[in-house]
Amino acid sequence: MNAVGSSARLKSVEKTRCFRLGVFADAQYGDKVDETREDDATRTKRFRASERRLRECIRAFEDEAATLSGIVNLGDLFDGYNEDDKTTKPVLRTPMRAATLEKNGTDLAVVADLVNESKVRMFHCVGNHDCNVGKEVFLSAVNAEAAYYSASMPRGWRLIVLDTTDLNPRYVSRDAPEFDAAMRFAQDAVDEGREDVVPWGGGIGPVQFDWLRDELNDAAAKRERVIVASHNALHRDAARYQMSAWNSDEVSDLIESSGCVKICLAGHDHPGHYHYRNDVHYVTLEAMLEAAEGETSFAFLDVYEHDAVLTGVGVASSRRMRVSPPGVFTGIATFGAAEIGAIAGSGSDARVETSSMGLVDWINAYGRD
After folding, report:
1. Which of 92, 233, 250, 301 has CA atoms 20 to 30 A from the CA of 317?
2. Secondary structure, 3-state, 180-216
3. What gap in Å lies between CA 80 and CA 131, rounded to an integer?
4. CA 186, 166, 124 angle in degrees (round to 5)?
5. Tens digit of pLDDT for each residue in 161-203?
6. Could you tell me the pTM of the whole model?
7. Helix pair 98-116, 49-63: axis angle to 10 deg
């Protein structure tokens, strides 16, 4: 194909974009000094920098407001404090002093004001740190309609937002109907000696799991395609050990058997990760909190008929993901090494990862059963 043909084809692909989302994870703002991890000196939590980073992220999304169908916050908007007794098994929420609650509310308000000012619709996942003010308080602060829900996207797509704090009794109110099931799960895990069930984790409780099954059945019946957003990764290999949802095996089996889910977006595991199984792309976005000094982390997700392109800004990885059935050729690929440049709609320089495959190899890998 000559250069003119390639250019025309690329323009055609651009015109058929189904929709676009802004995505960020783990801003985890706090009015506290930076903290270098004891287990990894190369990683630093830059709590105060997150206010500026989030402001710039929202501004970049606002600049593209006319092209966006929404902004997805993958959880842990702020950091917060708690006074839980970590020696108990399972760990449960300990009542906080009034001063601690006030400090948490003050820190949350800083970043809640930023997201609430956005003209673009926000979709919030609840993170474990967000629960330092209580789940209901957090949802109210960011004007979220519920802890888990679904929303229609253009061109026959659906976005499902899940709550992975739902299975951890530490984050569930004791008078909530979900508490007993969460407590049983956590206690059984302790009795079984499961080391992956950690105090900062969680999963999808039975009520929410049944709701998810109904949503996926409905989407499949309507021939819709689905993007699922959650704080914890929904496949055990989409994050490091102890960082995926506690019942990720059951959840990922449900997701993959549905036939309609194409992409699962998550945060929580700050270095980020990616896994692909049974035609589902599991993407764990790099944390805004731990981006290097002077850097950031957020992304634009452009969804087309046959593929989706995640364009990372700052340290966030960029990916191209097929979302059509195997055997359907997805158009013209971009080949070559990684490039640094201004990405359309990002408002700043971004790292773009492109395939090093040749065209024939790419067709053989992705254009057949």
Report:
1. 250
2. HHHHHHHHHHHHHCCCCCCCCCCCCCHHHHHHHHHHH
3. 9
4. 150
5. 999 999 999 999 999 999 999 999 999 999 999 999 999 999 9
6. 0.86
7. 20
